[in-house]
Amino acid sequence: INDNITIGFILGILYVLLISQNKIRNKNSLNINVILLLLAVILWIIDQKINITERYWFINLHALWHIFATISFINIIDIIQW
After folding, report:
1. Model pTM?
2. Nearest-CA neighbor of 31 among 82, 67, 75?
3. Which residues face 80 on adjacent strands?
4. Taking 90 as the threshold, does the pLDDT of residue 71 lie above it?
5. Which residue from 70, 60, 79 is spatially nearest to 21, judged by alpha carbons?
6. What is the dihedral of CA 12, 81, 29, 16, to 10 degrees?
7. For the chain, which terminal residue's Cβ has fewer other Cβ atoms within 10 angstroms, N or C?
8. What mean pLDDT is predicted for residues 55-61?
9. How far apart are CA 60 and CA 14, in angstroms?
10. Side-chain-facing half-sphere of 59: CA atoms under 13 Å
11. Per residue in 49-61, is it b (16+ CB within 10 Å) or e — as a string?
12. Are the C-beta atoms of residues 77 and 25 closer than 8 Å to each other?
């Protein structure tokens, strides 16, 4: 996946948060989950650039991206009053 798709993905998430700003029930929880999502993105970018798994089989940053991103997405969706 190239960097343009990554940037588009991040901008899309920020856009959803922007248009849902008045429907967010818990701002503190949102902040924590946005930080968790940013951590997941950073881990994913590091994995794409370095591929540390080739050297250390037990460190899989891509798997952590999936775990942290999923947790933060579920929590963000739950915070927004639909």
Report:
1. 0.74
2. 75
3. 24
4. yes
5. 79
6. 10
7. C
8. 84
9. 26
10. 11
11. eeeeeeeeeeeeb
12. no
